[in-house]
Amino acid sequence: MERQIRARAIRRMKGLRLFASSMAAFMPILIFGVALAHGIVGNRIFLSPIIGNDAFPDNAASLTVRGSDYEFSLLPEFEKQLSDNSSVLFSAGWSRINPTGSQPNVEGVSDLSIWFRQAAFKSARHEFEATISPFLVVPIGNRQIADQGHTHLGGELLLGKGLGDLPNFSSVEYLRPLALQTELGYAARIQGPANSDVFANLELEYSLRYLDHFVEPVNLGRTLIELAPFVEFNYVQSFLAARLTTKPDFRLTPGLAYQNDYCQVSVGAQVALNGAAANGDRVAGLGLVEIFYDNIFPALGWQPF
């Protein structure tokens, strides 16, 4: 009898050790899984806009490609979180311009933009986050492509709002997967002739993942669940002097995004809405690839503050 009791105790101890070792092995995966998402506010996972910035300080590296008959450009960006609610973002690129007529082609790098991003308010219940972002534009680029070698200082307000707090009634429940993102910015020259730029972007996106998880299950595979259609409204305008301005440039950018735990891939088409766009640039194709590098290499998620 004592041998049987001792054998049972040994089996229990082995079982506990196996359970403990299994939990120890899976704990990093569980912890890793908690962090495997970006742009999270409450139940909402926001997209990274294909044009402009979002309101969510992050660890990410991205490349945006834009092509039209007039211009082909590459825009790499790198963002590093400084704390849970702040980050620094570096943005610069390369462009090739093919003007019409007898003018020669121009190509070269664009200016370097450095953005400091600080989340000012966040409500998980209302899926809302507001971020302020001062930035500096350093004139390192080709003057025929960039802004003629002048330093700019500016700031922007970024907002993200999901509609998940709508009542769960049949008449409006299918609107709950919708989310809005807005970007309002101003950049002023701090040297050279008086000049300033105003820009704004508004994005409307619809999350099939949110629909499946929080509204009604849908019979789609995991790949399709990760898709999110979106449409952006883009505006930019330059004020060259007190009484002289360029035409406001309005464009519409519909597209489709795929977002998983490690990356986002988006494609879209940009269409000019008025006559401000250059000839050959009224229709353009866009692509975005963004990597959440701290999900692949967790050590890179280190924050100094």
Provide a descriptive summary of the structure in words:
There is one protein chain. By secondary structure, this protein is α+β, with helices and mostly antiparallel strands. The protein folds into two domains: 34 residues; 263 residues, Porin, CATH 2.40.160.40. It is 16% helix and 47% strand. It has four helices and 17 strands. It has a twelve-stranded antiparallel β-barrel. Strands 1-2 form a two-stranded antiparallel ribbon. A hairpin with a 3-residue loop joins strand 3 and strand 4. The N terminus is likely disordered.
Short account of what is shown:
With 305 residues, the chain is α+β, with helices and mostly antiparallel strands.
Mean pLDDT: 86
Tell me the strand order in the biggest sheet: 3-4-5-8-9-10-11-12-13-15-16-17
Shape: globular
Name of the CATH first level of the largest domain:
Mainly Beta
CATH superfamily of the largest domain: monomeric porin ompg
Task: Name the beta content range.
Answer: over 45%
Number of structurally distinct domains = 2
**Judging by the overall fold, what is the CATH architecture of the largest domain?**
Beta Barrel
Under CATH, the topology of the largest domain is which?
Porin
Overall radius of gyration: 24 Å
Secondary structure tally: strands: 17
Distance between the termini: 61 Å
N-to-C SSE string, H for helix and E for strand? HEEEEEEEEEEEEHHEEEEEH
State the helical fraction.
10-25%
Described by strand count, sense and barrel closure, the largest sheet is:
12 strands, antiparallel, barrel
Which regions are unreliable across 5 or more consecutive residues at pLDDT < 50?
1-5, 7-35
